[in-house]
Design goal:
631 residues, alpha+beta, Rossmann fold
Length: 631
Amino acid sequence: MKESSLTKQQQKEKIRERYKGVDPDVLEVIPARKKPDFYDDVPRRVAVYVRVSTDNINQTSSYELQKNYYEDLVRRHENWTLVKIYADEGISGTSLKKRDDFVRMIRDCKEGKIDLIITKSVSRFARNIVDCIGITRELGSLKPPVGVFFETEHIFTLKDDAEMGLSFLATIAQEESHVKSNIMNASLEMRFSHGIVLTPVLLGYDHDENGELVINEEEAKTVRLIFFMYLYGYTCQQIAETLTSLECETKKGNTTWSPASVLQQLRNERHCGDVLTRKTFTPSYLNHKSKKNEGERTQHRWRNHHEAIISMDDFIAVQHLINNAKYGNKGILPELQVVHEGALKGFVSINPRWAAFRDVDYEVASESVYSNEEYNSPEPKQIEVKSGDFDLRGFEIARSQFFDSIEKICVTFSIKSVKFSKACLQKLGNVQFIEMLVHPAEHLVAVRPAAKDDRNAIRWGKTDKKGGCEPRIITGVAFLRTVYSLFGWEEKYRYRIQGVRRHKNMESVILFDMKETEVFMPRETLLAGSVDEGRELLDKDVRPVVPNTRSSIRAYPSAWADNFGSNYYRHAQARELSTIDIDGAWQITEKAQPFSNTELNITPPEELAKGIRRIIEEKKQGRKTDGPVHT
């Protein structure tokens, strides 16, 4: 009879019959091998892991006590053999970095030298839950498996029920490190905000009985020699060779110098009497990787905190020289230049090779030419409709950004480069060199022709195959970060701006309104992992449109959503044009002049040379030198 034809009751009886079991004489049960337990008295090669949190001398006794305790523990088990006590001193448990003995122990396990690891607690083994669970799983999967016994918690990792408790305890240990990290950061912040600064040892200074910095005159000679030589034009490599040949000592007593150690002295603001806190910080308490503080953490700077070895002006000049040297401008001291008169009054010239200035420096330079008056954009002129003319109020000129921009005057900025359209070159007569200027308050950029030998000249064009002129990409890593900061742009995005040409008296200038930008955002910003970030941006001032490239999505200012363009009459007085349309204020070729506040009272070259010779002679008299000395 088919099973499908059985009644429901018959089917249930058949299932019950099937599960009544079988004859024990027919079925043989082969029991599983008992899983190892920590308390089994079987032969084992045992490793002990010990870690103390700091390398303070007071922790030495703690380490020795743990060492003695575990040696006795292994001796009490006849079948146990102590392989080694692995110990790390002064190392955090949140990362495997620098935990040399821990890493060595895991490697020995993989090589089959260890059967069992004993450690005091989960927090001693690892304060990182990923490391803790990952490593114990890895050890348990070895053949034969290696177990870890956490003595305080009585957890043995080879038992089936161990992982849940271990995960919970590892999470607590990790969070404990997180809390300690936050407490330490809060403590530092309270110290700094109340004027209690940390002043680590530094060449040129000692600490008095109150912990204050006082000049060590012999070391100060070395510091002065480093700064004088760099200001005079020597490279870090040449300075390092000189210091080594003179057997000048570092703060740690070494007499071998490297370019990096020289640069470290040149960068330290404490040599000019200031103290700057939080130059670096640790974003993650788990990996302890240090990162340069670029505004992520609050900083405090104390002026004239202690006696200076180097003057402030000399120190600032050195910083400018170092920043410029990164872009091939060795020995060139940069200066800001601002236009004082004419239509471009208040515009600051941009040198593409200078990285020494911040956005606030450009703002101060621009404001300086207006004396005490505040800059106000010219009010739009009143346009009257004459009798017989069409009244075009209410009509709008559609924005050119909504149409193909290939033949338009436009420029595209990224954090690394700038590229102008071919139309820009054509409107300025296909010149190959231009000067780019910025007005920080008005958010305007101007471009005008420049001579090849002009200090701030930028080559924006190159000769094409037909003998004409075509755009070239302008590398701007030295100054573009400052431009992005001036306009409040996001470094991960590209920005395109359309411009207008103004022509008068056979002279031309192109202006770009940096408030009227198209934004090109990476597609993944909105469609992948950065959705929230993309939405936050959209909520502020842009709206996306249909993607026009595979890699990016174009967005426009949200203010454009309610109109097609600007009012007809308002368009005739575009903001970027009205700025320079003041009667009698053309003078578009007016040269930019050095910003007076950027003039530094730098030690003159002849005094630098005298200082270098004097210090070298004093060093030679103090000790013999074997190698050549640069003078």
